[in-house]
Design goal:
about 400 residues, mainly alpha, two-stranded antiparallel ribbon, two-stranded antiparallel sheet, 4 strands, about 5% strand, elongated
Length: about 400
């Protein structure tokens, strides 16, 4: 008398003696709820203990609790390694690896708690980042994964941002708003690093079609978890340090959306809007302009549209002029910077034959004069230059109409 054999999705077989054994196998082997129950218990315990320690102001206990969480993550990694590399149980190993991903990006917010409550927060932050990078490398080793360089770099930089964010805000003193906006830009740069270039995660296990599908889903989940956790940490930092969310926080989103825009008019509209919104917070103008200039530089090379380099030059000029800018009351463009931007735009116009670059250069020249006499000289110079430019453009296209008329 032979028993029936049940084959799971990943090719595993199990001798069955009845429906109750099939239920036990699927519930406690394929989809073992004990892993999730363990994680929920740990999260609940951390929450309860954190509140208890906060009420009695036991700062030393907060550090001990943070190391307990690190120890639990190490147990998760050991369990995944034993199941995947020794026992050959892929499904439960992947479940444990997914749980570790949530803890990897500090799901329990212990880095914020320790950095704001203890004198050794900086040391703990450095230690947390180092351990997080090692755990990330351990995950790739356990599951025999080869990850593309830009994806691994973005993940490491994201972990650095999560660990260093509360430390920077603590050291910022009264300038929390600017630092928080900078950290928002930092997160947007990580998203651009992942989405702007091709990412690749390859397994050396020789997976079948279903295994490749699971790997793709796990990769997308890991990216979503990393991004969502960074946003959650930004929200936590704003709450802890009393940072008010302003229009300047929307600017990185606009620049990120513009990075994937395929139409030039939308790119210009989003870039100009981003710089305009940053004017509401003067200290944010210079790095907003730097980000917009970088955006136009990347899109100019990727689309081979030299007109976008005008945005790069103007964005760099605004960034240089507004470094440590106190506000509109003291807007004073530097003559040397203006001349450098004008020369760059004029050179771009000559190389790429773009009259629009000359027009923008003329507008920048209008920022140089400070007296009525200087304004008159600049106006005369622009008049002569415009006449010469108009004649040169007409001369360059002198035969175009004739050729168009003679064409069949």
């Amino acid at each position: 008398m032979s028993a029936d054999v049940h084959v799971s999705g990943d090719g595993e077989g199990l001798a069955q003696e009845g429906p109750e054994h099939d239920l036990m196998y699927r519930w406690f082997v394929q989809y073992n709820p004990l892993y999730f129950f363990s994680t929920l218990c740990v999260l609940g315990g951390v929450f309860l203990i954190s509140n208890g320690l906060e009420r009695v102001a036991a700062h030393g206990g907060t550090i001990v609790l943070a190391f307990v969480v690190q120890a639990y993550e190490i147990f998760l990694l050991i369990g995944a390694a034993l199941l995947f590399r020794v026992a050959g149980e892929r499904r439960p190993a992947v479940i444990i690896g997914g749980l570790e991903l949530f803890f990897l990006f500090d799901w329990v917010f212990q880095s914020e708690a320790v950095s704001t409550l203890t004198a050794g927060g900086l040391i703990f932050g450095m230690l947390w980042v180092s351990l997080a990078v090692l755990k990330l490398m351990a995950l790739t080793w356990i599951f025999r994964l080869r990850v593309s360089f830009n994806l691994m770099l973005a993940a490491v930089l994201m972990l650095v941002g999560i660990g260093a964010g509360p430390q920077l805000l603590t050291l910022a003193g009264q300038d929390h708003q600017t630092v928080h906006v900078l950290l928002t830009w930092y997160g947007a740069a990580m998203v651009a690093l992942v989405c702007g270039f091709s990412v690749r995660v390859v397994s050396s296990e020789g997976l079948d079609d279903w295994g490749q599908c699971v790997l793709r889903r796990a990769t997308r989940t890991a990216l979503a978890v990393g991004g969502a956790m960074y946003v959650a940490h930004l929200a936590a930092w704003a709450s802890i340090f009393g940072v008010s969310v302003s229009w300047a926080h929307l600017v990185p989103v606009l620049v990120g959306v513009a990075l994937f825009s395929r139409q030039e008019r939308w790119l210009w509209a989003q870039g100009v809007t981003a710089v305009g919104l940053s004017m509401l917070q003067p200290e944010a103008v210079w790095f907003t302009s730097t980000g917009v200039a970088t955006l136009f530089l990347i899109k100019g090379f990727s689309t081979r549209c030299p007109r976008l380099f005008i945005g790069t030059i103007v964005g760099g000029y605004i960034a240089a002029c507004t470094w440590a800018w106190p506000g509109w009351a003291q807007l004073d463009p530097h003559i040397a910077l203006t001349l450098v931007a004008v020369v760059a735009l004029t050179g771009l116009s000559c190389v790429c034959r773009m009259p629009s670059a000359v027009i923008v250069a003329g507008l920048l020249i209008c920022l140089i004069p400070r007296t009525m006499l200087e304004s008159g000289v600049v106006a005369l110079s622009i008049g002569f230059a415009s006449l010469v430019a108009g004649v040169a453009i007409s001369w360059n296209g002198r035969n175009r109409d004739a050729l168009a008329a003679a064409a069949p």
